[in-house]
Every structure is written in structure tokens, then in C-alpha cells.
Amino acid sequence: xxxxxxxxxxxxxxxxxxxxxxxxxxxxxxxxxxxxxxxxxxxxxxxxxxxxxxxxxxxxxxxxxxxxxxxxxxxxxxxxxxxxxxxxxxxxxxxxxxxxxxxxxxxxxxxxxxxxxxxxxxxxxxxxxxxxxxxxxxxxxxxxxxxxxxxxxxxxxxxxxxxxxxxxxxxxxxxxxxxxxxxxxxxxxxxxxxxxxx
Length: 198
What we know:
- The chain is of the alpha/beta class and about 200 residues long.
- Helix content is about 45%, strand content about 15%.
- Helix 2 (about 35-45) packs antiparallel against helix 3 (about 60-80).
């Protein structure tokens, strides 16, 4: 059974790092939405005289957000159709609320729910200072806006999104990524992804 695994969470929780650790052990197409659409979004924001790092603006939400997510979704569909496991990394907040979204992804790949094992790993932290330090440490320009508007982000660190997909509860893992990412913690996530939930 193919794996379609979503690593979701707010900025700085470490969802990409966790996903990479699991990808070391489970081969998968690795689709980080920031990588898929980042350059295009920054260019369009720049062309409109806007802050290239601002993903919270009305302009971004109205004109660019869905472009990024839909493009990532289409690449996911192509990889599923080609028989690949897929890891999806991004908050996916709106998509998780939409029951039809995941159904459309699987059917567009020419597959059924019985052929794709969908998992959601919600990566959280127990404190906002860890989140801020991780954002500082990764030193990416797109984080500048977040740090300059920290009060808008800090309350989201333990946010668990609403998940309305038709998947078993056992297919959802809330993973506290506080402290060191030990071998034992990775093993827990790996066993969760590897297990078939039906």
C-alpha cells in the first residue's frame, strides 16, 4: 500500500526536519510547499511591491496561497499515480478541514482509499521560545516577516488543526517535537508511518 503522509504544523515546529528523518527510512517523493512555490510567490510579491516574505497578507491569501497548495497537490497526484509514496510538508490548514480534498487527490491519481494509506502527523512544540529559536537558527529570508511580527505567530505553537478527512483516528499523530529529536522519538514516528491503519 502506498503511503501519503502529511507533516503539518506552524512555522518552527520542525515538521520538515521530522519528515526528512522519516524519508531516510521510507522512500518517498518529498514535497515541501515552500520549495514547490517559494520562488514564484516571492517574485510575484516583489512585482507587486510587497514584502517577499509576507505569507499573511490579504494579497497572498487571495492570489497566491491556493496556487502554491494546488501546485503541490498536482505534483502529489502525479507521484501517487506513478506508484510513489508521497510526503507532504506544509500547514494544510484549509485542506484538512475539507473532506472532499483528500478524496479528490486519491481519485485523481487513479487510486482508491484502499490503495493509499493516508497519515497526518501534527508537529507541535510545548513552548514558543523553542519555536522562535528554531526559526532564527534556520536563517531563511522568508522567516524575517514572522520574526518581525512575532506576536501574530507565537500563540500558534501548540495549534492542532481541525481534521475532517475520512481517515481513522489511528491515522493521526500529534507529535510534540520539543527538546532533542532523539532516535527514540524518530522511531515512534517511523512506526506510526509504517503501520497500516485500516
